Amino acid sequence: DYCKGGYHPVQVGEEYNNGKYTVVRKLGWGHFSTVWLSRDNDTGKHVALKVVRSAAHYTETALDEIKLLNKVVQANIDHPGRKHVVSLLDSFNHKGPHGMHVCMVFEVLGENLLGLIKRWNHRGIPMPLVKQITKQVLLGLDYLHRECGIIHTDLKPENVLIEIGDVEQIVKTYVQEDPNKAKDEHRNGRRRRRTLITGSQPLPSPLNASFSQTDLSSLNKLMAEQGKPVPITGPSPSPSQDVEMSGAAGATSPTKSMKESLGISDEAAQKEREKTASPEVILGAKWGASTDVWSMACMSGTKYGKDDDHIAQVIELLGTFPKSLCVGGKWSQEIFNRKGELRNIHRLRHWALPDVLREKYHFSIEESKRIAEFLLPMLELLPADRANAGGMAGHGFLDGTKGMDGVKLEIEPGTKGEGIDGWATEIKKQR
Ligand code: ATP
Fold it and tell me: What amino acid positions are annotated as catalytic residues?
């Protein structure tokens, strides 16, 4: 991978962009890039420097990404969701022994939501925190959909990053709830914090300042993961085009990430994506921005298996599929017969959401009803009927969310695609 067209051999202490950034340590890596904690020598603050592989298709993807990320930065600074979507701070090219590398600079973020879910894996994340993250993700999505014309397409716990001050505060605030777990949390928390947040070097303000925050307001960020978001209106290839491009007949999900369209197989990533994939995406039917709202409602982490198991579980939870979905999608016929019945799975156990919440997750009758009332509008099977993110951010269920007082959009909860282009069907423009 460290060869011509591959990763750039970044060194700690090395300078980038004519001395503006100095590399401090590695933060992580992915198929596209390596990511480095770096110091911005103009401001003294730390940033995340992403150095993309140099081959032409990575460069082109990165340049498309930069266009979308610039839109996110500029679209509407007054929208309350903007600060919950990660900001691109800078971008430039860097020449190295393996070619020219696109570099992107982001604010430094911390642990992802999957990590947080694991910290509480015995009991689930405490409800006040769930509400806070939910509200912030919904606001971020509304910003992407309404103001930027971008569909995320890959919303899942790994792509929701918690800002670093929060992780400290969250552990302090909530770990006392379960004294038996406190020791473990403390141990894990310390280890992870060292890896993910501070490293061996003390970070200057404002990063240290956020450790002393007493609430979690405004700190969680929805990461519009690079390479994943698509514009509602072209020009990058839509997910359904990706499938055609890669010729993957019967591919399980059209929300293939760029890396899959580049032919890089990543079974684990695909499995993760399947957990939050909407019915229209699994069936290859028309889809739009509303698919992100479905994914948002699924992030509580139900495990799904193959496509038809996944669809069967959705039917068990939400009822029979509308005819248009049973027959209309590119892959509908693989899963449903002509009568609209599942081909391979015959015995279904109907278990409605409020009953699941009560019987499986032990919520009270009242609480189960309230949670279901909040989730079900986001789980409407027909994309056109699904509630929009901004409206749901103002739902009564999220009233009193910590740190979010007065954060409000003037959008009625339960409204659908009004005012959002490409809500149920992506709009494509010719390049
Ligand atoms: P892939 O396409 O495989 O997901 P990628 O090359 O696009 O990978 P990312 O997933 O964006 O790269 O980032 C790789 C890793 O770098 C992340 O898992 C995370 O650990 C770390 N990272 C990325 N961005 C940030 C950030 N802003 N702050 C802190 N860490 C980050």
Answer: 154
221 lines ligand 1 (CB under 6 A): no
Q: What spacing in Å lies between the alpha carbon of 29 and ligand 1's midpoint? A: 6
Q: Each residue of 133-192: pLDDT tens digit?
A: 999 999 999 999 999 999 998 898 888 998 866 555 665 666 544 434 433 433 333 222
3-state secondary structure labels for all residues of the chain: CCCCCCCCCCCCCCEECCCCEEEEEEEEECCCEEEEEEEECCCCCEEEEEEECCCHHHHHHHHHHHHHHHHHHHCCCCCCCHHHECCEEEEEEEEECCEEEEEEEECCCCCEHHHHHHHCCCCCCCHHHHHHHHHHHHHHHHHHHHHHCEECCCCCHHHEEECHHHHHHHHHHHHHHCHHHHHHHHHHHHHHHHHHHHCCCCCCCCHHHHHCCCCCCCCEEECCCCCCCEECECCCCCHHHHHHHHCCCCCCCCCCCHHHHCCCCCHHHHHHHHHCCCHHHHCCCCCCCHHHHHHHHHCCCCCCCCHHHHHHHHHHHHCCCCHHHHHHCCCHHHHECCCCCECCCCCCCCCCHHHHHHHCCCCCHHHHHHHHHHHHHHHCCCHHHCCCHHHHHCCHHHCCCCCCCCCCCCCCCCCCCCCCCCCCCCECCCC
Q: Would you list which residues are annotated within the binding site for ATP? A: 50
CA–centroid distance, 372 to ligand 1, in Å, is 33
- Interface confidence, given as ipTM, is 0.98
